[in-house]
Specification:
Two copies of one chain form a homodimer. Chain A is α/β, with parallel strands linked by helices. Chain A is built from 14 helices and 15 strands. In chain A, 43% of the residues lie in helices and 14% in strands. Chain A has a seven-stranded mixed β-sheet, sandwiched between helices. Chains A, B: Residues 1-23 are annotated as: Disordered.
Chain lengths: 392, 392
């Protein structure tokens, strides 16, 4: 075959639904020479990473680990361990990732029942309560931050209460919320939660947070049938991440270096300060988007700070705008997903991207892009509105 | 919680069963800012990585991808896709990883039948033929390079012939051989093969090679029951790695950057030259080990160049020697695994570690270590023997 050139990816600003911008310190950690996955010095790195994960998830769960794969692997680990063949899982019907939960539940040998809710809206806790009464589920899945629609689930404690009243465990997707938006695992009564690196944690994908309460872990350890995945079986992973530190599989050492550094940055900033930063800069980004004529898909009470779904002015096709942003301005935003694929764009404001520079660069490029596509606006209106919002 | 210190892992020389030494260019690629997993520029990186994987595996299989996880994830993808519930898989009984294959086969809903062979010896193709006749398997698993014992399977074409005569697919573990030892997927008639980055490819773990022939992929696409893992379902991954390039899960972008660079180094060196380099430096390493009084576990005809299993002189406990090597000399070697856990050490000679410097440093440290543990040898005998072997 021909020779392959030096790796020279374009220098994109990542303001889509993830991967997000990465802090230079995280990249440096990524490129650190690995040590062995059973080296006592690496065990220390594992311990520290677990402590930092607990802090970020606001949990005391001993069972808090990075899964050796991307976010969907953590999701599959959560569903596949917690749900046994023949059991029932409720999943939300208001977005793409509830559908993925259902698919995983079926592959775990369980049954999935969808709580029907329109895309772009959060679940109503009363619907969860009614579905629990009707279907007697073993697990209730909830997506705290729907990456496909930009919807935040505002009523987490009410949902966990409804599920617990029916003795069901609650499994929460916090892929696009962890580290960017208030998430309180223990206080809210969430039994299992998973996330990913490449959203608000601002860490390239490959090692993904998972936390399981003692009660949920007891269910996992009491299973009659083994988990259908050996790789993701928590009862086996216990040997590696628990007290024993015995070999199960080779951990992705450098991904854990990077995740640890990303979590360390969160610790230094302070989690509450970080939530506030996401709120502030995503608010400014939105003011800029509205000033450019975009229209929100999601009602204010359920909007995710980390991801905005919006319709373009003049009926512009999302795909064309996404392409111009990427090819002409090196800024990544994305089209919608699922029901919103042809209707909306998705613009992220996550982690290291939730800052003045990335927000203004995105709005400036978008103003020029819309203008180039024939929309009659002031291309600078977006950046001006954002700066004014930040100045308030 | 307390603050967590800067990441400062010790500077170990990695000469165990993996992770192996990493080339600086691979680390630099790891630390390159990511772009989006659906970016056309990343699709190009994917294409190049697939081409390089095909070259390294010596295959034309279209279905050649890096799995988004470590080697065990690639193994589970291979077993879980190829084997359907109710089907039978033959697995080798001569090492740890054949046992893992059996475990995964059972979790896929299949039956595993072990071909009994002593640890430390290769399979006899006639035993495979007899087991095929007796059990009529759908899949025959074979471990080309047993990381637990240091055994190379020398008779791959005879094994695939025996399996194909009974219409079974052959699934080969080449975790500790790919990129270091002759492996010819198409010529040998291997239907599915998987590997890992952190052995002879010298790439930190996290994205792991998998290749499947058209015939085997046809079986996967014709399955009645869906694969039990959504994350590893090749019929879904086809959408992302195939023509369509549609979203399935977020790929570990930086791991693929690094794997591409590691494969590019192999392309530059030339695969045959690389096999020869492994042969030459592992040969020198072994001469050094024998000069220090270690004794081989495996017969010459089945010894893996990339990994040597050896008993220590004077009945020394492997654990104590491994610890001294690590703590006093910053050299990682490992104890045996499974049947050899308390009997032998495992010393790797893989990828960027298969060079003069690492071999001599290892032998020098081992000479001093054995001497410190009271073995009456010339501590310099190992390095002298290695240099003499290289000089021949």
């Amino acid at each position: 075959m021909d020779s392959v050139d030096e790796l020279q990816p374009p220098d994109r600003l990542l303001m889509g639904p993830g991967p997000s911008e990465t802090h230079p310190r995280v990249l440096r950690a990524f490129g650190t020479p690995p040590i062995g996955h059973l080296d006592p010095a690496f065990v220390e790195v594992m311990d520290e990473t677990q402590d930092l994960l607990r802090e970020t998830l606001r949990t005391d769960n001993e069972w808090t680990i990075p899964v050796s794969g991307t976010g969907s692997a953590a999701m599959e680990a959560a569903v596949g361990n917690l749900l046994e063949p023949g059991e029932t899982m409720l999943v939300p019907g208001n977005g793409y990732f509830g559908g993925r939960m259902a698919e995983m539940a079926r592959r775990a040998g369980g049954e999935a029942v969808t709580i029907e809710t329109p895309w772009g809206e959060p679940l109503d806790p009363e619907d969860v309560r009614a579905a629990c009464a009707e279907h007697d589920p073993d697990v209730v899945g909830v997506v705290h931050a729907e990456t496909s629609t930009g919807v935040r689930q505002p009523s987490m404690p009410a949902i966990t209460e409804a599920a617990h009243d029916h003795d069901a465990f609650v499994l929460a997707d916090c892929v696009t919320s962890l580290g960017g938006i208030e998430f309180r695992m223990d206080e809210w009564g969430v039994d299992a939660a998973y996330s990913a690196g490449q959203k608000c944690l601002s860490c390239p994908p490959g090692a993904s947070p998972l936390s399981i309460s003692d009660g949920a872990m007891e269910k996992v350890l009491d299973r009659e049938d083994p988990v259908r995945s050996w790789y993701l079986d928590l009862s086996l992973l216990e040997g590696y991440w628990g007290e024993e530190r015995s070999y199960h599989h080779t951990a992705p050492v450098n991904n854990i270096y990077a995740l640890r550094e990303a979590l360390r940055l969160i610790h230094e900033e302070g989690l509450v300060a970080r939530w506030e930063r996401h709120r502030r800069f995503s608010g400014a980004l939105r003011e800029g988007l509205w000033a450019l004529g975009l229209e929100p898909v999601v009602a204010p009470s359920a909007r995710l700070p980390s991801l905005t779904t919006a319709r373009l002015p003049g009926g512009l096709a999302p795909g064309a705008v996404v392409e111009t942003m990427r090819e002409e301005h090196d800024v990544e935003i994305a089209t919608g997903l699922g029901a919103f694929a042809d209707e909306a764009v998705r613009i992220g404001c996550m982690g290291h991207g939730a800052r003045r520079g990335p927000v203004l660069e995105t709005l400036g490029a978008l103003g020029e892009t819309l203008s180039a596509h024939g929309i009659d606006i002031d291309p600078g209106a977006g950046v001006a509105a954002a700066v004014n919002a930040l100045d308030e």
